[in-house]
Amino acid sequence: MTEPLEKRLEKAMAELEAAQEAVARTERELRQASFAVLSSDRAVRATAGPQGELTGIEFLENKYRDMSPQELAASVLEAANAARLKMNRHVMKAMAPFAEPSSNVPELKGFELDWERIFGPEVLREDDEDTARAGQETPAWRDALGEDGED
């Protein structure tokens, strides 16, 4: 026997309210998020804010003094782009559940988000760093020193 319309509507409203609260909570958390990434030559640390904006650049250990302008620019761009990509992937993972179909209300089918169109194609590429780390733990000494490439 099928559920009465009032009961289904009540479930749908409860799920909608829960989703609205979860979206608001996620938005608050994302507004506080930031990611810092070191360039591969460890000369530059760039930090991206919640909208992917560049919020900080640090030149580490005076390495920039021995770099050509082109090398320094490449290090800055590499770190900034990697930090922005990390933030974009974080936003994508945080918001993805809200696009999924409802398990309690079959009429709510969810919707498709074009992450590539929103953030660019690199956001969908496999994250080499996460893949490399998945099979190995970060050595304790790197954790203690905070030298895992991000803050």
Structure report:
The protein starts with a helix and ends in a 6-residue tail after the last helix. 14% of the residues are buried. The protein has 151 residues and is mostly helical. It has a three-stranded antiparallel beta sheet. The chain has five helices and three strands.
Provide key terms for this protein:
single chain, 151 residues, mainly alpha, 3 strands, elongated, disordered C terminus
Brief overview:
The protein has 151 residues and is mainly alpha-helical.
Point out poorly predicted stretches. Answer: 131-151
* Residues in β-strands, percent: 5-15%
Spatial extent as radius of gyration: 21 Å
Shape: elongated
What would the average pLDDT be, to the nearest integer? 81
Distance between the termini: 55 Å
Quickly give the structural class.
mainly alpha
Write the layout of secondary structure elements.
Elements: H1 5-31, E1 35-38, E2 44-48, E3 54-59, H2 69-95, H3 115-119, H4 128-134, H5 140-145
